[in-house]
Design brief:
This protein is α/β, with parallel strands linked by helices. It folds into two domains: 139 residues, HAD superfamily/HAD-like (Rossmann fold); 98 residues, Eukaryotic phosphomannomutase, cap domain (Hypothetical Protein, Haloacid Dehalogenase-like Hydrolase, Chain: A, domain 2). The chain is 35% helix and 21% strand. The longest helix is centred in the middle third of the chain and has 15 residues. It is found in: Cytoplasm. Keywords: Cytoplasm, Isomerase, Magnesium, Metal-binding.
Length: 247
């Protein structure tokens, strides 16, 4: 194998079940076995607080050599913050409010089995829009995910936004169970590669579950700078790593 390899992981559905914590035995496997062979990195759409909760604490930025929150808009290398971008400064308040106002109006008209609170979450690098609301319970999350698979609530909402604002400069990406992300064109997970391509890796292996078109792993999974691995669960991620590196 090449001497300098990076394994870069999505979080939800790849290292953890959606919005849940990583299994302690899986984390030990990554730190004790995999880290002796290659460098470890994480790229997630959530903010650093949420990623840290799922990855067993704030020392995440020291356990993993590279941590990219919000698709890489917030970037840590070996425990030190290296870069941070701001969607408000980049896109301007007028464009942001157009999307926010349209989304709130759209959500006020649709009927779902349940609705809760926090329908739009403002992050440094994106807007996260959840038709059910992010304050729902885990049981309600699971139920909405099944409902969305049948009724395409998120996909239909994205189509409506794209029709209303065809040239506004945003990309829309479905991830996790209950929400989708809205971010400037080019600010998908490939954003983190602008930092990694300077690091001299022989190979970058990316592992993610939402790799189909419209999923938030699609762009980076298909980027020529990485070797993409589609996974179906944390257990599948571990099995693929064991096979790839003969662990």
């Amino acid at each position: 194998m090449p001497s300098k390899i990076l394994c870069l992981f999505d979080v939800d559905g790849t290292l953890t079940k959606s919005r849940q914590s990583i299994d302690a035995e899986f984390e030990e496997f990554l730190q004790q076995k995999l880290k002796s062979i290659c460098t470890l990195g994480i790229v997630g759409g959530s903010d650093l607080r949420k990623i840290s909760e799922q990855m067993l604490g704030d020392d995440l930025i020291h356990r993993y050599d590279y941590v990219f929150a919000e698709n890489g808009l917030v970037y840590f290398k070996q425990g030190k913050e290296e870069a941070k971008q701001n969607i408000q400064k980049h896109m301007g308040e007028e464009k942001l409010q157009k999307i926010i106002n349209f989304a709130l109006g759209y959500l006020s008209k649709i009927i779902l089995p349940v609705k809760r609170g926090t329908f739009i979450e403002f992050r440094a690098g994106m807007l996260n829009i959840s038709p059910i609301g992010r304050s729902c319970s885990q049981e309600e999350r699971d139920a909405f995910e099944k409902y969305d698979l049948e009724h395409r609530i998120r996909a239909s909402m994205i189509q409506a936004i794209e029709k209303e604002f065809p040239d506004i400069g945003f990309t829309y990406s479905i991830g996790g169970q209950i929400s989708f992300d809205v971010f400037p064109n080019g600010w998908d997970k490939t954003y983190c590669l602008r930092f990694l391509e300077k690091e001299g890796f022989d190979e970058i292996h990316f592992f993610g579950d939402k790799t189909d078109k419209g999923g938030n792993d699609y762009e980076i999974f298909n980027d020529k700078r990485v070797i993409g691995h589609k996974v179906t669960s944390p257990e599948d991620t571990k099995a693929q790593l064991e096979k790839l590196f003969n662990l």
